Amino acid sequence: MQGSELESWLRLALTPGIGNASARALLGTFGLPTEIFAQSPSAFSRLLTPTQILALSEGPSNLSPLLATTLDWLQEAPQCRRVLTLGDPMYPPALLHTEDPPLMLYAIAPPHFWSGLQWPEHALAMVGSRNPTPQGLENARHFARDLVQRGICIVSGMALGIDGAAHEGALEAHGPGIQTIAVVGTGLDRVYPARHRSLAHQIAGHGVLLSEYPLGTPPLAHHFPQRNRILCGLSSGTLVVEAALQSGSLITARLCIEQGKEVFAIPGSIHSPQSKGCHALIRQGAKLVECAQDILEEIPAWLGHPSSGANTGSPALEQAGEEACAVLSAMGFDPVQFDLLQARTGWTTPALQVRLMELELRQQVARLPGGMFQRIGLT
Questions:
Q1: Over the stretch 164-180, which tens digit does the pLDDT of each residue have?
Q2: Which strands, in side-by-side order, build the sheet including 104-108?
Q3: Which of 147, 186, 267, 338 suits a disulfide with 152, CB 3.0-4.6 Å?
């Protein structure tokens, strides 16, 4: 994209008071932004209010420095970075069919993606709590890994908790094509949360980082619900792994329903606040899922995708000794106090502590605050 063309798109997208709907009306009437700004202000009277017309004629105050910053950012890694606009052949086609497609998208992806330029045909959004249970994290990684091995791209928001685990599971799978897409709520020149810097670099090498926000945009609270429409737009459905009743993940699920997409939810413990949102979605008609196959069967077009043959179960329980199996059986799947677990097994304190430590090292049991323990894994 030439500098003058980029400048006109930035001016249109960032002018105060000109939202996506008004901008699309202008594009539909006059064509590209360069054509829009060639018009006299009177030409906009049927489409804009007087206040909007004045704002459009003045343009955003930070246009020049932002243009320079964006051009520098593109030139730093020209093989990996792109600014995509409506009508650009590189723009994700799935978003064009949504009610509110972004005017501009900033993207980072490996060079082979841009040379082949094939956005994933089949993608699933995965969302959930920022404060998940150990079982929730394991579920997110397992589902993402299994689905990528079957040719499904995982779309999420790179937030702490379930989002991060979904991206990590997708990257572990080494599936065909783009494994995961992270739709973030900041400019792509910063990583939020900061602890996901390494994850962001991994996604940039094996997936796509995507944002509708200009460079330098900080993590503002209202951006994150807004970006969820892009998660849904890129996907054929949404899987909610864990969510409280007031979780932002339920916003994503609602947007998905409004777009006519499938919503899936993983059930959890009736005692866990992080499962209440999933249970509410299931009561409202979301499909309860226990494995990746449940999702594939609901979207028949996905069933033709090859599986890598990876085992969807975990052999860890089979390899564990009889005593470890007894501990897991006594524990169940809800958090449990040490004293209650000791009463169920009838073991001495030292013997039970040894077995619990072994299971922690095998990553089959997690130690929770308050002296609680919880079984993790899918078996």
A1: 999 999 999 976 678 99
A2: 81-85, 104-108, 208-211, 180-183, 153-156, 123-127, 237-240, 262-265, 287-288
A3: 147
